[in-house]
Amino acid sequence: MSEKEQKIEFPTNWSYRIITEAANKDCCAAIDELLKAYGIKAKLEKKDKSSSGKYQAYRVQVVFESQKMMNELSSKLSAIDGVKFML
Predict the structure, then answer these.
(1) What is the model's pLDDT at position 14?
(2) Exposure winner among 34, 63, 70, 85, fewest CB in 10 A?
(3) d(CA 65, CA 54)
(4) Structural domains of the chain sorted by starting position, each given as residue range(s) with its CATH number in brackets
(5) Is the pLDDT of residue 4 over 80?
(6) Cβ–Cβ < 8 Å for 14, 61
(7) What is each CA distance from 85 to 21, 35, 60, 61, in whole angstroms?
(8) What secondary structure does DSSP assign to 22-71, as a single string?
(9) Is the pLDDT of residue 3 over 60?
(10) Which pTM does this prediction carry?
(11) Residue pLDDT, tens place only, 46-87
(12) Alpha-carbon distance 19 to 49, whole Å?
């Protein structure tokens, strides 16, 4: 492993910042359903809206038990209609 790579030790706390299309009203419900399916009780925190109003940011705290869980959830979240990107 190079010095630039960091090894994540599990379980680990993780904070997602999820940017969505503000006009897509079903997006948040889909995110909530997916989180519940993974046993995550944390709620989406509504954050800033873009200056144009086109995008809405959310944050959610997650505890990952494994790399597999992290990869699966990240992939499924990014595939939800209306999710533009995640940080």
Answers:
(1) 95
(2) 85
(3) 34
(4) 22-86 (3.30.70.260)
(5) no
(6) yes
(7) 10, 17, 14, 16
(8) TT-THHHHHHHHHHHHTT--PPPEEEEEPTTSSEEEEEEEEEES-HHHHH
(9) no
(10) 0.86
(11) 999 999 999 999 999 999 999 999 999 999 999 999 999 999
(12) 9
